[in-house]
């Protein structure tokens, strides 16, 4: 199994043609993030067979220059967004993680952390503007395909939206970690102190897989 095989199945479903039409029309007529050629970056950096951990976001950053096709990640040189700042803070508290100046999480993606947004595009300055146009069906199929993996995976579900995807993860081989969203509005209500990064590596190690070097960004 690989991403191409999974995506090819989706392309033959009725919803996908309409999704593709709407997304391409949006890119032609409006400012849309991430850049068109970075829409599927998460899959290019983290092959299906290499996934160890999934960190699920909702939709891309909607301000100029931030979205890069990886959930919670921003390119080098961009200010670190508040939610990612809190992710770094939790990592520091758990592991002594040295907080970097960059918000680019490519180093995690290359180690097997699938940084997946449930919606892969957004109109500039309009959060959730591409919700309910079909992306959720597409990314639900990605989660379902990962659920079918025999190798144990870790799913980090932060916030109510991400936690709603728990119903798709039925394989008892996998570890599902749930917490509040890391945004400033909710991080103090259960994200801080969740211990997810240590728990992830403990689970991977116990199942004979390489741990994630969270510091390697």
Descriptive overview:
The protein is α/β, with parallel strands linked by helices. The chain is built from 8 helices and 6 strands. The strands form 2 sheets. Strands 3-2-5-6 form a 4-stranded parallel beta sheet. A two-stranded antiparallel ribbon has the order 1-4. Strand 5, helix 7 (159-163) and strand 6 form a beta-alpha-beta unit. Helix 1 crosses helix 6 (135-147). The longest helix is centred in the first third of the chain and has 16 residues, at 14-29. The mean pLDDT is 97.
Brief summary of the model shown:
Helix content is 35%, strand content 11%. The chain contains eight helices and six strands, in the order H-H-E-H-E-H-H-E-E-H-E-H-E-H.
Total beta-strand segments: 6
Helix content: 25-40%
Stretches with pLDDT under 50, minimum 5 residues: none
Order of strands across the widest beta sheet?
3-2-5-6
H/E topology pattern: HHEHEHHEEHEHEH
- Our estimate of the beta-strand percent is 5-15%
Form type: globular
Supply the helix-strand structural class. Answer: alpha/beta
The mean pLDDT is: 97
Terminus-to-terminus distance: 28 Å
Give the helix/strand layout:
Blueprint: H1 3-11, H2 14-29, E1 32-33, H3 41-45, E2 53-57, H4 82-95, H5 106-109, E3 113-117, E4 122-123, H6 135-147, E5 154-158, H7 159-163, E6 175-179, H8 196-206
Parallel strand pairs: 2-3, 2-5, 5-6
Antiparallel strand pairs: 1-4
Helix pairs in contact: 1-6
Give structural attributes:
217 residues; two-stranded antiparallel ribbon; 8 helices; 35% helix
């Amino acid at each position: 199994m690989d991403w191409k095989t999974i995506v090819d199945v989706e392309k033959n479903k009725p919803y996908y043609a309409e999704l593709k039409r709407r997304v391409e029309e949006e890119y032609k007529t409006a400012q849309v993030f991430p850049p068109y050629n970075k829409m599927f970056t998460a899959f290019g950096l983290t092959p299906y067979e290499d996934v160890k951990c999934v960190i699920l976001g909702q939709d891309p950053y909607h301000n100029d220059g931030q979205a890069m096709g990886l959930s919670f990640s921003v390119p080098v040189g961009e200010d670190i967004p508040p939610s990612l700042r809190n992710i770094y803070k939790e990592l520091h508290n758990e592991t002594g993680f040295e907080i970097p100046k960059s918000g680019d999480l490519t180093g995690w993606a290359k180690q097997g952390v699938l940084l997946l947004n449930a919606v892969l595009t957004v109109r500039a300055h309009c959060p959730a503007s591409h919700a309910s146009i079909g992306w959720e069906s597409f990314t639900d199929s990605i989660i379902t395909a990962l659920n079918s993996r025999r190798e144990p995976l870790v799913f980090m579900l932060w916030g109510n939206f991400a936690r709603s995807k728990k119903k798709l993860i039925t394989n008892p081989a996998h570890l599902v970690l749930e917490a509040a969203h890391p945004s400033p509005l909710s991080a103090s209500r259960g994200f801080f102190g969740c211990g997810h990064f240590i728990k992830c590596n403990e689970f991977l190690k116990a199942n004979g897989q390489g741990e994630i070097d969270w510091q390697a960004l």
